[in-house]
Amino acid sequence: MHYDLQEKYGKKLRILVAPLDWGLGHVTRCIPIIKELLQNNCDVWLAGNETQQSLLKAEFPHLPFLTLPGYRVKYSKIRAGWRWKMLLQLPKIFSAARNENEWLKKMIMEHQFDAIISDSRVGLWSDSIPSVFITHQLNIKTFSGKWTERISQRLNYKWINRFSECWVPDVEGEKNLAGELSHPKIKPKIPVHYLGAISRFENASGVTGEKDHLLVILSGPEPQRTILENKIINEVAHYPSTAVVVRGLPGSTNIIPSTGMIKFYNHLPAQQLEVEIKKASWVISRSGYTTVMDLAKLQKRSILIPTPGQTEQEYLAEYLMDSKLAFSTPQKNFSLYLALNEASLFDYRLTSFDQPEKLRQTIKRFVTSLVKKPS
């Protein structure tokens, strides 16, 4: 049942959705959530930076958008420098979280929001309205020992527990897509709801794969996105069949010319990207979790290249390879020829973790709780 709140209460529920700016995955995995909110007749508003606005406006051109600065985290050019680079940026991250919390207080007063859904923005919690935190990282991998992971988890939960509830985009059972990241022994104090492996893509039918056709999806923070792009361009120029490279730069005017065999796109809307994924014999991408969910939905053979030093992606790549869900290779010595050769011998055991009813039930329950909330 969907709720016609306009008729019953004289207004629609006004809900703000704001994803983190660390890569485009936080934005794209919000797309099915936004669609479900709209199905429940909610007045959905969006917030983010210019890049996020470009992507979200392509999917939802009529929804209001508020400018909200991102955390602007920079990654090291070398894997060994990643931890120090992140530690040095912690004061900036905490300052950004405090600033966005003050920003949210003003926006609630100005626009009369009924709830906030934050994808990994730790500062977007509220004492005055229900606030949801979306994450697949309840457990943070550091690869520096269990004690550092315990400290990271405590700090993570300190932020998460300020929200009303937590939504985890993964299945709840033993066989899951994010492993220990989304299934810690100790969970946050607030209610935790598993959504299944959500994806902006609709189904896995309609387009069949083309022999040897290659799709490369670039994404993630700089400078590593560009470093991998340069490697890919050098390699794919000699690829004997057709290929498509999606650069992960929505809104950019910097164009790489296409050829008869190799096509370059700065960005593709969800519908077109879904077609390209289905056409591909192989998909090469980062092991970002949203991409992983999309590939699992479409049951595609993939070659994952984790961002160097990004421990979440490194853990996911290893976990998915051990689970036979994806083949992975490090960026440092990446060779397109070797990666394709090794992946062709890999024993893929593709599995769907899609549970659309979980997302529908969670959104319906949440909307119902807002309807019943005392005025």
Topology:
Blueprint: H1 5-9, E1 14-19, H2 25-28, H3 31-39, E2 43-48, H4 50-59, E3 65-67, H5 82-111, E4 115-119, E5 131-134, H6 146-160, E6 165-168, E7 192-194, E8 214-217, H7 224-236, E9 243-246, E10 262-265, H8 270-279, E11 282-285, H9 289-298, E12 302-304, H10 311-322, E13 327-328, H11 336-344, H12 356-371
Parallel strand pairs: 1-2, 1-4, 2-3, 4-5, 5-6, 6-7, 8-9, 8-11, 9-10, 11-12, 12-13
What is the total number of structural domains? 2
Percentage of residues assigned to helices: 25-40%
Q: What's the CATH first level of the largest domain? A: Alpha Beta
What structural class is derived from the secondary structure elements?
alpha/beta
Strand content: 5-15%
Could you give a quick summary of the protein structure above?
The chain has 375 residues and is α/β, with parallel strands linked by helices. The chain is built from twelve helices and 13 strands.
Protein model, in words:
The chain has 375 residues and is an alpha/beta fold. 38% of the residues lie in helices and 14% in strands. It is built from twelve helices and 13 strands. The strands form two sheets. The chain has a seven-stranded parallel sheet with strand order 3-2-1-4-5-6-7. The protein has a six-stranded parallel sheet with strand order 10-9-8-11-12-13, with helices on both faces. Strand 2, helix 4 and strand 3 form a beta-alpha-beta unit.
